[in-house]
Amino acid sequence: NAGVMQNPRHLVRRRGQEARLRCSPMKGHSHVYWYRQLPEEGLKFMVYLQKENIIDESGMPKERFSAEFPKEGPSILRIQQVVRGDSAAYFCASSPDSREQYFGPGTRLTVT
Amino acid sequence: GENVEQHPSTLSVQEGDSAVIKCTYSDSASNYFPWYKQELGKRPQLIIDIRSNVGEKKDQRIAVTLNKTAKHFSLHITETQPEDSAVYFCAASTNNFNKFYFGSGTKLNVKP
């Protein structure tokens, strides 16, 4: 059973471009969480999704950020018109029951 | 919303000594408290968790204690080894697991 997969692992975008981060949960997991981590800081909750539903997006900025978890395919975190302050590591975690979370390796986004 | 505070931010111990990391939380509705270990450049990994109906839980050299009245919980690592060196995060969540609030992390350094 493969672990949580995230791609790309590293992403460089210029200011104003779009960033798409993908998360493939573990097989059988229908709960996905996205977190953002700045260097030397903790994980900040962004959004919690179940298949085809956003359950809680209270940690995600209302502008430029969106997330989805379609019936088929990976969960996607989309950041439009990126700014330097969006540079961070973005982790997703999947869970079979919304309790025990299994983290992916993260995507390190650098905005130049 | 919930606020999780974690102390100390850095902790240096001699191999074989014990290490204790403490967290406090503010929302009395929180009832699930996981601890994660994150090695440099890697994903967070769950090492132990505790629910609010239990005061203490042990797993070999790791134990977690919870005081619901005082709203604090602690991670105890005994007989520390150099491979325990990492950043440790506490977290809190409520019954619906819609979101997890993480502490700011403790960088543990075990000196051989």
Question: What does the model show?
Answer:
The complex is a heterodimer of chains A (112) and B (112). Chain A has no helices and eleven strands. Chain A has 112 residues and is mainly beta. In chain A, the strands form two sheets. In chain A, strands 2, 4, 5, 6, 9, 10 and 11 form a seven-stranded mixed beta sheet that branches. Chain A is globular, with a radius of gyration of 13 Å. Chain B is mostly beta strands and 112 residues long. In chain B, a hairpin with a 2-residue loop joins strand 6 and strand 7. At the A-B interface, strand 4, strand 5 and strand 10 of A face strand 4, strand 5 and strand 10 of B.
**Total E-strand runs of chain A:** 11
**What is the overall shape of chain A?**
globular
Radius of gyration of chain A: 13 Å
Q: What composes the largest sheet of chain B?
A: 6 strands, mixed
- Low-pLDDT parts of chain A are none
- What's the Cα radius of gyration of chain B? 13 Å
Count of discrete alpha- or pi-helical segments spanning 4 or more residues of chain A: 0
Average pLDDT taken over every residue of chain A? 93
The helicity of chain A comes to under 10%
Number of strands of chain B: 11
> SSE order of chain A, as H and E?
EEEEEEEEEEE
Oligomer class? heterodimer
**Biggest pleated-sheet summary of chain A:** 7 strands, mixed
What is the string of helix and strand elements of chain B?
EEEEEEEEEEE
How many helical stretches of chain B? Answer: 0
Gist of the model:
The complex is a heterodimer of chains A (about 110) and B (about 110). Chain A is an all-beta fold and about 110 residues long.
What are the key terms here?
heterodimer; A: 112 residues; mainly beta; four-stranded antiparallel beta sheet; B: 112 residues; 11 strands; 57% strand
